[in-house]
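pls ignore typos typing on phone
cobalamin + seq
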Amino acid sequence: MRREADLILLHPPTVYDFREKSILFGPISDLVPSSPIFEMYPIGFTSISEYLNRYGYQVRIINIALKMLQSKRFDVEKAIRKLHPLLFGIDLHWMPHVHGSLALAEIVKKYHPHIPLIFGGLSSSYYHQELIRSYPFIDYVMRGDSTEEPLRQLLSMIKKGGSLENIPNLTWRDQGCRVRVNPLTHVPVNLNDIKIDYSHIMKKVIRYRDLSGYTPYQNWFSYPATAAFNVRGCTHSCKTCGGTAYAFRKICNRQKPAFRDPELLAQDLKTIDRQLNAPIIIIGDIMQAGENYAYQLLNDLKRHKIRNPVAMEFFTPPSDDFLNKIAEAIPHFNIEISPESHDEQIRRAFGRPYGNKDMEQMLDTALRLGCKRIDLFFMIGLSNQTYQSVLDTVRYFRYLLERFGKSKRLIPFISPYVPFIDPGSEAFEHPEKFGYKIFYRTVEEYRQAMESPSWKYVLSYETKWMTRQQIVDSSYDAGLALNRLKAEFGLINPKKAKKTEKRMISARQTMNKIDKIMLIPDIAERERQLQGLKSYIRELSESTICEKKELEWPTQVWRMNVGWILKNWFHIEVWHRFQSIFGQNQT
Ligand code: B12
Ligand code: SF4
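k done
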């Protein structure tokens, strides 16, 4: 039997049988490039692949979610049956994948009972014991935010023998079916040995002749956004976020964030710039590592003459001096910032410690310095936020657009915090302290919630200030009002605004229909009526509150370095043939 890879990493859809089910997912993916199936795989898949490759292990990534989205006929079971790695890996990084991850794992085990299967990602790390205890088809969970090296040790052990007890960060089941939790000791202090290398991925696409298996999201070829990472962990403590300093301590044993040295990060951007003409987002506020770090990064970027659009996210508004430095270093710079609410008290309580005056000062300076675009993200479902407060936030957008909107470079977004309060966040651990009520706690409860017919029932929480229904209603009201405002200020054309409005109204009416159907006591009849809505539910689930297209930064037609690809194609093909002829990687 031919082994094409040592480790195969599979990315599941949110709900495994989404192609058959009738679910109004609503705005769960409005603010990310993915569809509600969350077909984007964790970027960590690529660093795992690159790292293990350095040690001679072949890793293949297969984006099952994307393949299922692209073709109704894509047969998951048939595809899985053909694979024979040393180890299968499935991400349960984002909790909304819980249904898809578990279903896919069951299929893998059905066809390959003797090949071990590992889970990983933040949600797996949080629920590691429950996963191993309750789901016999999962053999291992690799915990933590940096699994590259422990995975290398595990693969080496599988190949050469040894004891599972010696693998750091691993949770596993022993012969007596007891859950064993190895110490979480692999927590690197910096990211200098970890790489997000797009050229490595391109080589893999060629090696496995599988473009869709590696494509990050459905529309990537029309809008190929890329990411450069400066950090694992975070210095902030936003209450509902599962990636805070608090959550990382608890879930990943990370006492402080790990950064990538600025010169290496600048080099990463330069490499993307030379190979792809795609927008680059620097994930993680570069000010988190301190001023010296941020200034050095900008100096290096200036030296590298980056031409691609670069988006930087800021957790607090940067100073005028710093904005000047950005403008000098990056000709096409964009900014993202999430004030969450217009109300400073609500914002501060959430964990964003700045006032409107500071933010407006930043908008003024950044726009004056030629910032190509500023995205402002606001949220619904916050502690102390009432229905009225949500509407007041939209009123504040009018003020902002009147003051800064002329150049059409300021784009406000508002969306509910959906679908779940992150496991491991402060609001999840101490809901009463922040006025939250959490409906689901266990993995199984989340799995079942994901099958609910509309996003109102999927929503894992309500607050002291808004019920689930009010969160839903205020989301549509705010979405409609913002859509009109965007048309009025010329941020979207009136025809598009009308279309978006129609879709939002239809989505709302369908939510009401689903509510009525949910009252039918006969389950079979309920299911029959829900299926009746299926045909148009799908299109109502994309861009429900915000138009996804509006997330795209200004860019030109993208280009790939074709010479580079052809050169690599040749090398990889020759190496591949050499391996098959001389029997390496065979069992
Ligand atoms: C960048 C980011 C994004 C990017 C994703 C880029 C990408 N492709 O990974 C974008 C903006 C698209 C995004 C989207 C979402 N995100 Co986000 N995101 C982050 C952020 C800020 C950083 C993540 C990061 O640094 N990753 C580091 C990279 C290098 O590692 P990694 O991908 O996590 O992989 C490592 C490990 O996790 C592990 N691992 C992962 N998978 C697997 C699988 C196996 C088998 C193994 C062994 C190991 C393993 O090993 C990897 C390498 O060491 C965190 C917050 C934070 N401070 O961490 C939130 C965070 C991860 N996101 C979160 C959420 C909720 C979402 C969304 C669901 C939000 C939404 N409703 O739209 C979507 C999901 C989108 C999708 N799947 O399509 C939550 C997750 C909470 C939870 N437990 O569910 C976090 C914690 C905070 C937050 N609320 O934003 N996100
Ligand atoms: S939401 Fe807050 S805590 Fe979470 S990653 Fe962003 S800045 Fe950090």
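The chain has 24 helices and 17 strands. The longest strand covers residues 333-340. more later
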